[in-house]
Specification:
The complex is a heterodimer of chains A (271) and B (264). Chain A has 271 residues and is an all-alpha fold. Chain A is 70% helix and 0% strand. In chain A, helix 3 (62-82) packs across helix 9 (146-173). In chain B, helix 2 packs antiparallel against helix 3 and helix 2 crosses helix 6. Chain B has one domain. Classes of the chains: A mainly alpha (271), B mainly alpha (264). The A-B interface holds A 28, 31-32, 34-36, 38-39, 42-43, 46-47, 49-50, 52-58, 120, 179-180, 182-183, 185-186, 189-190, 193-194, 197-198, 201-203 and B 21-22, 25-26, 28-29, 32-33, 36, 39-40, 42-48, 51-52, 171-172, 175-176, 178-179, 182-183, 186, 191-192, 196-198, 201.
Chain lengths: 271, 264
Amino acid sequence: MNAIMSDLRLYRRLILMQVRAQLQYKINVVIDILGYLAVTILEFLSMLIYFVPFPTMFGWRIGEVAMLAAVASFSFGLAELFGAGIDVFDETIRRGDFDRVLLRPVGALFLVASSEFRLRRLGRLTEGILAFIVSLVLLHGIKWTPLKLLVLSISVMSGALIFMSILLMGATMCFWTVQTTELTNILFYGGREMLSYPITIYHQVLQRILLFVIPLAFGAYLPTCYLLDRALPLGLPGWVVFLAPAAALAFASIAVRLWSFGVRRYQSTGS
Amino acid sequence: MLRFYVEVAQTAFRRQLIYRWANLAGMLANIVFGMIFSYVMIALFQVRSIAGGYDLRDALRYVWLVQSMVMIVLTFGWYDLMLTIRSGEVVSDLSKPCDFYWYWFSREIGRSGYYLLYRGLPTYLVGMLLFGFGAPLDWRLWLAFACSLPIGAMIGIAYRVLFNIAAFWIVEARAFGTLATVIALIFTGNYVPLPFFPAWLRAIADWLPFSGLMNVPAQIFLGKLAGGEMLLEFLRQLAWLLVMTLLVRFVAARATRRVVVQGG
């Protein structure tokens, strides 16, 4: 317990250090966040244009898809914010900085995860909040219960964990080759794009992958179905939404195990 | 002098050939996004069979056309020029005995040619195999498309050099560049085709330079533009190409006059 507390304290210090460093250039940070916010808002709004000529997307109305996209933005945005260090791991390897990380008396994964924190990424979370408000306005008449709020928050955190695990798997591949970052990006950004639409529009195989292999659907589609009192896909019973943390932890533990295997195999480029 | 620029373009083309795996991975990304948007279109067209003059086959062709053209016309995250300004390498390009803009223009034309052959064509073919939407067989459409796409690509070059040059004034111009790219991509129908836009937004989009990037070539390819309309769109494309080229050359001249080289 003590160890966890001291890790958390250290994490907070490392993150705050970076926040403080970035705040030295206040105008830059503000422009960066606003720029990212504008980009994500524009992308969100342009998706809504589909509903000008079409009344529904596979039975989903505009407000419902907006809510889905908002929840996906939360999951993805959190992962992007807290997983930035894992995201840029290929650079850490290429520069040889990972050798230094290994010498320190704290876990390597911990140090990698806390090595980057970009305030600009708050832009997408802000967009998520705005998109969520838009969806509430468009929908009006959702019955909120404490249970729904609970499902929303645990699902978003689970989704973020799954997205970060994808990044971690990509980072693990860097121990063998740094050429693969593009592939991780496809899964990371493609996954986000896929989550913004009802997963029922995809091929049966893709739906099953999103539910059982890379369980990203737990981070956006399932909780949104729950909030909107919709049936879950593939005839899954309603309580499945509560399995989100389990699915996320299972996926993350695979990612972490692969990572530790990679760390053991790691040989520095040396010179 | 022309021969020099042709050499520059050929060199850029050849340099691109080296990044075989990066291109393959990039193509995979285009394919994944093409698939996602195809499923979106298939889902949407369940409730009505025609929208904005498009049927499902047109929409699928459009989706894959966009995925095939986007690297040729407006690369997302193109900061090559910006980075040379930040690192100071721009000085060596400025001291070359050639025009600064035409130098970058030739480089980018070479790259666009590469992406046409090694990214665009294969991506469209994969889409054709996956979703069986075929391609138009009328040779006149292909001819018109072959005239319109290069104009779109040239507008794209002028545009991205323009927002890269902003780095002469702003140190961290990336955020600005991303925003500029996204705006252009939205108004050229990268996310949603222009025919699906509400009328008022469509009216604005039609008069922006971005329509000429991908929307006009795509509409021609899909056979949606007849005689007079096609002529009008060609004229608009050419007019914007002229305006954008003059603008970027003016701004580049202003910017490079500001450059102070610190030797050492």
